[in-house]
Give the backbone structure.
Amino acid sequence: MSVRVFVPCDTSAVACGADGVAARIESEAGVRGFDVTVVRNGSRGTCWLEPLVEVETPEGRIGFGPVGLEDVPALFDAGFPAACDHPLALGRVEHIAWLKKQQRVCFARNGIIDPLDLDDYRAHGGWNGLERALAMPPADIIQAITESGLRGRGGAAFPCGIKWKTVADQAAAQKYIVCNADEGDSGTFSDRMAME
């Protein structure tokens, strides 16, 4: 049975060498006769651990990081892709102190799924909200958004329900939704990273 190994494909991880690490894991596994499937997932936001390589096990994902090209053979020597004793071994990913303190809502699937695989997205609850909204009248959608407390990501954190109701109440035949992806601080690219 193939072992699934996750290597992030987002900008930060790629800048840290994730593409090469993913390729090296595939080639090293092939040379050593391991049946490994490399999945390119999104990042969990742990940039100091990138590339954060994760191995799927029955107990949960085991993390290794930051993994460089030169680390891959030594990981396999230590017993990778099974949980192994190696200086880069981090244990169960959800037990990493920084992640353990978080309760993710909007980014709950980050690092879990392949962001380019719609079937993977659906398997992890993606589309549920959209399907529910499509079955509701517009006024009920706005009410649900208002009651949820959802706010904009800008500095004012303006309530989305108020924005949506204001637009819905306008007597216009055609209305538009605009995503401006404003960067408040030049060079931060925080909105671009959120959209990735």
Observations:
- The chain has two domains: 3-119, 130-195.
